[in-house]
Amino acid sequence: MTRIHLERHDPDQNLHRFYQLHVTPGIFGDWSLVREGG
User: Which residues contact 16 (CB under 8 A, 6 or more apart)?
Assistant: First the structure.
């Protein structure tokens, strides 16, 4: 599984975000992209 973790910080706007992308094999031999953020 490949995982990418990104962060964005802007203290002037009180902005703190994270994003994660996961590439994972599916159950039928295909691939799926899973996104998470907060």
Answer: 7, 8, 9, 10
